């Protein structure tokens, strides 16, 4: 049961339960049904003279910082409840960090901070407390950096331990080249973005003095579709393929993504509450853009075949039941590649290929680009345009497949 909120005269209440917390985490109720989170700092007191009575009194110094984080006051859906949970976790983490900063500035107190930091351990500690959905990519960034150190003779001596100040600009440039040599498409750019995120965090928390990534970028053609696409014929070939000990939930979920264009992170969280059975609609909020995009909500029409694939909850009252109970991404990917191989499809297929295949196939069947952008949950047409280029490429291949014209 949720704790009772003890509202004060200014329509705020304190979330912190420990009386020793400084700052204390609180929330202010807004008129739009949300609550704005803030931190209340106690900055001590000073003796002052009252202008009215002339008497000396203790003047308390307080400060309030609004975090620009918001809770739903009365969450109605599983998405809103999950969003509240994640936002509150982030706010508590910020509260703790502000508390340490306050202790350090006011009392000369410091958390034990080893000057002889091993950046690899620091990176792992960052991962251990990381709560966002892209944690898998952050883990890959650390693994790639360690691989780079091991595979580069010049830097192999740092493969077990490297101090932050030993990460130089030359090393980072070599690392970006290594990433581009190992990863396909936007993979190198995504991994490097997570690496830079950890570097920035280390600088903000005094573990590093200078940013060795400044001015070093990885550029890719965002408008070029680099992943493989399954044609309608290959999709039917895949659906017709069964093998011993296959995971039916992985199978159902991937076929669903081929016909609805969802990412793995979204399909694994779908519940029956997201399905409007009477109007044949799927409604959900994208994990990737939730909280920082006006287009994070997506509505997809469903046909009878897709509804059959979804099925029904084990109990009519269990609307929060997950539709596709999936194992980890790694296990899903392993099963998917086994399935593709058994189907005789000689393509490098990842889960995200289902989203690309969906977009390319419906464009190829005459859907306009705005409709595709809406179904994919894109905020504009920029990211959708790469699929039109893929269609042009397919058309060219079709023309080239005709017998040579000899006049």
UniProtKB/TrEMBL annotation:
Gene3D superfamilies per record: 1.10.150.130, Intergrase catalytic core (1.10.443.10)
A single GO molecular function term of this UniProt record = DNA binding
Tell me the keywords, alphabetical order. DNA recombination, DNA-binding
Q: Pfam family example for this protein? A: Phage_int_SAM_5
Q: What superkingdom heads the lineage?
A: Bacteria
Does the keyword DNA-binding feature in the UniProt annotation? Answer: yes
| Matches recorded under InterPro entries | DNA_brk_join_enz, Integrase-like_cat_sf, Integrase_catalytic, Integrase_recombinase_N, SAM-like_dom, Tyrosine_recombinase_XerCD
Q: Which GO terms describe its biological process?
A: DNA integration; DNA recombination
Regarding protein family, the annotation reads: Belongs to the 'phage' integrase family.
Record's protein name: Site-specific integrase
Species annotation: Marseilla massiliensis
């Amino acid at each position: 049961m949720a704790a009772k909120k003890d509202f004060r005269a200014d329509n705020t209440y304190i979330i912190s339960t420990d009386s020793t917390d400084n700052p204390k985490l609180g929330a202010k109720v807004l008129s739009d049904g949300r609550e704005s989170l803030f931190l209340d700092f106690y900055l001590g007191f000073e003796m002052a003279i009252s202008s009215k009575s002339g008497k000396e009194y203790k003047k308390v110094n307080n400060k309030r910082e609004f975090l620009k984080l918001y809770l739903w006051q009365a969450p109605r859906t599983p998405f809103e409840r999950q969003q509240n949970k994640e936002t509150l976790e982030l706010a508590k983490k910020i509260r703790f960090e502000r508390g340490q900063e306050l202790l350090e500035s006011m009392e000369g107190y410091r958390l034990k901070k080893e000057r002889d930091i091993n950046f690899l351990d620091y990176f792992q500690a960052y991962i251990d407390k990381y709560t966002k959905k892209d944690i898998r990519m952050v883990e890959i960034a650390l693994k790639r950096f360690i691989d780079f150190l091991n595979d580069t003779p010049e830097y192999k001596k740092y493969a077990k331990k490297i101090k932050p100040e030993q990460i130089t600009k030359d090393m980072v440039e070599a690392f970006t080249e290594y990433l581009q040599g190992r990863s396909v498409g936007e993979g190198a750019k995504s991994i490097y973005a997570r690496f830079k995120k950890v570097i920035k965090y280390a600088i903000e928390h005094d573990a590093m003095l200078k940013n060795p990534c400044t001015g070093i970028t990885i550029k890719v053609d965002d408008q070029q579709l680099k992943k493989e696409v399954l044609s309608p014929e290959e999709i039917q070939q895949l659906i017709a393929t069964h093998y011993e000990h296959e995971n039916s939930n992985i199978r159902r979920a991937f076929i669903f993504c081929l016909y609805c264009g969802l990412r793995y992170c979204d399909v694994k969280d779908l519940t029956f509450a997201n399905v409007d059975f009477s109007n044949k609609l799927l409604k959900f909020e994208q994990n990737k853009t939730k909280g920082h995009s006006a287009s994070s909500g997506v509505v997809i029409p469903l046909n009878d075949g897709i509804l059959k694939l979804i099925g029904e909850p084990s109990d009519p009252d269990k609307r929060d039941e997950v539709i596709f109970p999936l194992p980890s991404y790694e296990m899903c990917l392993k099963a998917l590649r086994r399935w593709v191989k058994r189907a005789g499809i000689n393509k490098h297929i990842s889960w995200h290929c289902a989203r690309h295949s969906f977009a390319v196939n419906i464009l190829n069947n005459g859907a306009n680009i705005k409709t595709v952008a809406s179904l994919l949950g894109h905020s504009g047409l920029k990211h959708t345009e790469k699929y039109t280029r893929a269609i042009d490429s397919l058309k060219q291949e079709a023309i080239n497949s005709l017998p040579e014209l000899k006049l």
